[in-house]
Amino acid sequence: MLIDFFTLNTTTPVEEREHGISIGLIESYVTYSIIEAFVLINQIRRTVGNEPEGAFLSCKSFLYEFLPCVEAVCYYDPNNKDASEYAYLVGKNIPLFWDKRAKEELDMLTGVMGTIMNHRL
Predict the structure, then answer these.
(1) Going edge to edge, which strands form the sheet with 67-76?
(2) Which of 109, 117, 112, 35 has its CA nearest to residue 72?
(3) Contact in structure between 102 and 13 (CB atoms under 8 Å)
(4) Is the pLDDT score of 36 beyond 50?
(5) 68 near 30, Cβ under 8 Å?
């Protein structure tokens, strides 16, 4: 099975970007980017549905300017019609804004993350 992928985070909902965590705290930044990627995946699934066989949404780590970065990605088999159509649908429906449920997930998960990080210091 041939697998291709594309990233979804390049258009992470813009109104939330300025609320991210300081990149100076690398451990916190990586954790926050994982949270944000999974919240984005959940919102996409609410919009276009669950993945068919041959496609899946997940996270992938990259190095960006020598810093770790985690992004949501859509993996799909380009030889599988359902998977390719799903990938196309995902690409056309990457949200420009967080929906209400995504905002609630971000608030809850970043609150938990903040509590954990404060206890570790």
Answers:
(1) 4-7, 67-76, 55-64
(2) 35
(3) yes
(4) yes
(5) yes
Looking at 7-76, list the stretches that DSSP marks H as alpha helix, in order from N- to C-terminal side: 26-48
Smallest CA-to-CA distance from 69 within 77, 78, 60 is with: 60
Q: Which tokens sit at 71?
A: 């992004």
- C-alpha distances in angstroms, 110 versus 10, 54, 89? 20, 32, 29
Cβ-contact 102, 17 below 8 angstroms: no
Could you tell me the residue ranges of all domains in the chain? 4-120
Q: If pLDDT is split at 50, 70 and 90, which confidence band does 15 have?
A: low
Residue 7 is predicted with a pLDDT of 82
- CA–CA separation, 37 vs 28, rounded Å? 14
More confident residue, 27 or 47: 47
d(CA 68, CA 27): 9
Contacts with 57 (C-beta within 8 Å, 6 or more apart), sequence order: 8, 41, 44, 45, 51, 72, 73, 74, 75, 90
How much is the pLDDT for 48? 96
